[in-house]
């Protein structure tokens, strides 16, 4: 008898040829031979969103974003509602917005953003009898550093560099933005449709979600018709968008794996754990498991910069297996 639990391997694939699916499968087969393990029915392969997007060359420049924003908004003052506090996912987008307008009013949720990043001190809120459901607060007295980084100061510095005026408010009522401007970009990810409808119901004139920007090509750029800038990552004024052909890619990988191993192996494209709705996965995975698998893949790859994750015995974790 031996105890069998889940085995998870993070794999770094350095070389991608003209066929991404074949490159991934070849890497997996090479690792299995070198490490001496076999594939089984029900194993799960996680492929990072970034490697699929780069293979598709689905990226946009900061100038592409500025062009699209200016085409869709004819104003000098824009409102931004509920971006996350993680700079990694929003810095290039914010820079593009700052270059597109003369003034930005930004409303942030508190004490946390929608994915749980805390930026406002609960202790100070309690001491000052702040009603988080109603009160609007400024940032000077309450803001904490997020990961030793003052997010508000970062946004202010970007606007100073771009010659754009910035007003920052904390409120859990998104419609307070309408006291400042009726032209708004909803930067929330998971609640974006609800917030857009709420703002329109309160009298907003023009409301776009991040999914409404770069949802079509600009001068031959990348694009995503469903998600636009949602799920994107920016590096050095270039933004990699969510893959357009993800389902086709995982189907190809699954088919090639079966031809090589004669095993029914599930495949998914994993993403930043803050994005709950963009998961692309093969039909053998179910909704009960997919969020956990995505979270594990993301955390493991983040720790060692891998771009493929292999999970074995996931379905049968913790059972006893006889030799």
- Proportion of residues in helical segments: 25-40%
How many beta strands in the DSSP annotation?
15
CATH architecture of the largest domain: 3-Layer(aba) Sandwich
Radius of gyration: 22 Å
By secondary-structure content and strand pairing, the structural class works out as alpha/beta
Lateral strand order in the biggest sheet: 2-14-3-12-13
Compute the number of structural domains. Answer: 2
Please work out how many helical segments DSSP would assign: 9
How far the N terminus sits from the C terminus, by CA atoms, comes to 6 Å
Calculate the mean pLDDT score and round it.
86
Element pattern in H and E: EEHEHEHEHEHHEEHEEEHEEHEE
CATH C-level name of the largest domain: Alpha Beta
Name the poorly predicted regions. 317-323
How would you explain this protein's 3D organization?
The strands form four sheets. Strands 2-14-3-12-13 form a five-stranded mixed beta sheet. It has nine helices and 15 strands. Residues 317-323 have low confidence and may be disordered. It is an alpha/beta fold and 323 residues long. Strand 10 (233-235) and strand 11 form a beta hairpin.
